[in-house]
Amino acid sequence: MSLSYFIRRCGYIVFTLLVVSLLVFGITQLLPGNAAVMLLGENATPEALAAVSSRLGLDQPAWLQYWHWLSGVLAGDFGTSLRTGLPVGPMIFGALGRSLLLAAAALLLMLAVAVPLGVVAALKRGRLADLLVSLVSYVGVSVPEFVTATIVLILLADPALRLFPASGYVPLGEDFWAGLHHLVLPVLTISVILVAHVSRMVRSEMVDVLHSDYVRAARLKGLRRRTVLIRHALRNALLPTITVVALDVGYLLGGIIVVEEIFAFPGIGRQLIVAIQARDLPAIQAGALVMAATYGLANFAADIAYAWLDKRIQYD
Amino acid sequence: MPLPAQPPALQVSGYGLDYETPSGRFAALRDIDLSIARSEVLGLVGESGSGKTSLAFAILRDLGANARETGGSIRLAGEELTAKSTRELEAIRGRRIAMVFQDPGTSLNPTLPLGEQLAEVLRRHQGLSRRQAWREAEAALARVALKTPAEMMRRYPHEVSGGEKQRVAIATAFACQPDCILFDEPTTALDIITARQILELFERLQEETGVASLYISHDLALVSRIADRVAVIHRGRIVEEEPAAQVFSAPREDYTRQLIASVPRPDRRLVAPAPAAAAPLLEVEALTVRYGRDRLLDRLRGRASRQVEGNRAISLAVRPGEIFGIVGESGSGKSTLARALAGLNPFEGSFSFEGRRFARPAELDRAYRRAVQIVFQHPDSSLNPRQQIREILARPLRLYDAPGAASLAERVEALLAEVQLPADFARKYPHQLSGGEKQRVAIARAFASRPQLVICDEITSALDVSIQAQIVQLLLSLRERFGTTYLFITHDLNLIRQIAHRIAVMYRGDLVELVEVEALAAAGPRHAYTRALLEAVPTPVG
């Protein structure tokens, strides 16, 4: 991987974010009613509306408003929440941090479960273990997360058993064990679909790689079974999986909105729902932009990781 | 008391193998008996599906889940392998018996450096430390005559040539000085000259180490050159085993005789001398083909274009009724030329056909395309898998409005008869046909428009020699009947010397020599590259 490839990819992502910012801004412009109406209510006088509009800059042409908003965002200023009157930036990034914690825990759990499942299924292809993994995967992929969440709640959050709390969030820094406890159910729910998805991918890649000449050659060199499996087969089977995991980050961001709502987890998804319900335009814009950026960066990271791991790919 | 005789390095006796398939049991190997002494090379020759590769994997005890052994024994230096556990086999493989695969492009792990893949065998079997193994591996690479072993150790497979990869694979097989090495067509995936060098390396190492070798190949001529004895395998049975020198001169079995008759021999010409020189049918003038995009970004930055020249100013003339051969290694530009003449590649320069001059692909009109047809190397990709043969053949018939009042179905049937296929093939799909039959369909499609010139682009390269011989016979009989001119592209120098009137030799995009075959036989080549090519090709012994 060359430096120029890296720089070009950086260029792409900047461009993507710009387009996203335009879309986000454009869509909020199209929403019925403007911020002044939302602030003052339906019954405000035209004079009051005009005053507020000019204070918020809503009487300026759209491109100028976009420019002010974008230059603010670049300087780290996402505007002021119409709902709370506080700056949107810290609010969004606090929520993003909590969501990333949730997502990272879900990804880790997913990898820890999905990769071994996929490998076992590939090794026992066509036998009972493989069928079971396939069955679980199909169910996992096809059940929507609110159903999974409900099942998880019924099984693990029974108030009588007091296994795990059904909702809320405690910062890990404040009380580590309580924080971890609160993460368990949402993480479990999110992981189910990811595990189903990625284990299928690992299985099919692994089946291909196990039939390759180089794995046979490794076996015929007398290498131990474990060496053949891990060093020669799994290494190559995991490469395409990286791309799938990056795409799953997209799902993760969507799925997280539902899951955070169900478990009352104060992450970015919940933040966004609250903002939409309150028609808090600056918060909606910031939330959408941050989510799009996260998705873009995840794919960027996957591309870079892939290029670094697979030396065959020639980027000029 | 006499010492007990040393057991052979490898001995297989009474071995049999079945494969369990959805349509029942398939006998892959039957009553296999063979034995290789130390320092001996046994050549195993067979066509595809004969069971030769199955035998190699059976010896190495690496069989698929659907394999069922029907008995027999496999002994490595007297030790029975069939009763060994997986763990015991792991300790034997790579150390006492090793294998070299056909295609080093697929048998090396793409994500590990070459040195790692060699050193890991030494670490596993000789208990060397990481550093010792690395040093030892570097020495092993030097022994297979790689020029910069230290650098080669750190490279990845995609960063080196096919020949270099195969040298690494060979070094790996020899690394632990095994009793026996199985070579499964180790030169088939390589270019002629590279293949020759690998073969020389094999002969040198084999002599130096005295390893017992089983050399598997489809190429009888090659095997008869390098083996001490040659075993011919057909449908899972070894039908004949002879000292190498006698296979060609005194074969005993019918099958061996057929096989030998199919092997192309430059000294047995299959065509009459070319018709007297008339005005050329096709005249190519300074034809150049460039590949790769001329990227806008590069041009703006003032960078040189990244285009590659596939053909550089090729000029040649093909006479009517002639078989014009084009030979060269992969990447020499022979297929590029074929595709340009078929209108499939953009080109610079021009060519004339029957006096009409074409300077751009867009000028190639229907009359030209009717007169000039192409047959590709792989019928699997050139025949639409979702169409029945009759649809495949009806299309050119409709397009070119072949003469006659017969119905389309009758004309398809007639076309099939021309390529000696039964009429009921019309309702089959390509996947129901064998490789040779598919290529016959492709030939029929080309002949549907009654072309004057047919471009054959490596059309027999993917086929077994016996099928190749049949396809060549078919082409010659069609030529007899229709007076067709052929542009025959191949890398098989023995075959082309059998059937062509003149040969153009291509090297890295240039036409380096154009010779009359009769003159070549009498006076030899003039250009050094042509000489190198001819010297690299094994011709049958005797």
From TrEMBL, chain A:
Its main location: membrane. The keyword Transport applies. Keywords: Cell membrane, Membrane, Transmembrane, Transmembrane helix, Transport. The chain crosses the membrane at residues 12-31, 100-123, 135-156, 176-196, 233-259, 288-309. Residues 96-302 form the ABC transmembrane type-1 domain. GO terms for molecular function: dipeptide transmembrane transporter activity. It holds the Pfam family BPD_transp_1. It is a multi-pass membrane protein. GO terms for cellular component: plasma membrane. It comes from the Bacteria. It is found in: Cell membrane. CDD domains: TM_PBP2. SUPFAM superfamilies: MetI-like. Belongs to the binding-protein-dependent transport system permease family. PANTHER family: DIPEPTIDE TRANSPORT SYSTEM PERMEASE PROTEIN DPPB-RELATED (PTHR43163:SF6). This is Peptide/nickel transport system permease protein.
UniProtKB/TrEMBL annotation, chain B:
One of its GO terms (biological process) is transmembrane transport. This is Peptide/nickel transport system ATP-binding protein. GO terms for molecular function: ATP binding; ATP hydrolysis activity. Keywords: ATP-binding, Nucleotide-binding, Transport. InterPro entries: AAA+_ATPase (IPR003593), ABC_transp_ATP-bind (IPR050319), ABC_transporter-like_ATP-bd (IPR003439), ABC_transporter-like_CS (IPR017871), Oligopep_ABC_C (IPR013563), P-loop_NTPase (IPR027417). It comes from Tistlia consotensis USBA 355. Transmembrane segments: none annotated. It comes from the Bacteria. GO terms for cellular component: plasma membrane. Gene3D superfamilies: P-loop containing nucleotide triphosphate hydrolases. Residues 10-260, 294-533 form the ABC transporter domain. SMART domains: AAA. It is a peripheral membrane protein. Belongs to the ABC transporter superfamily. It is found in: Cell inner membrane.
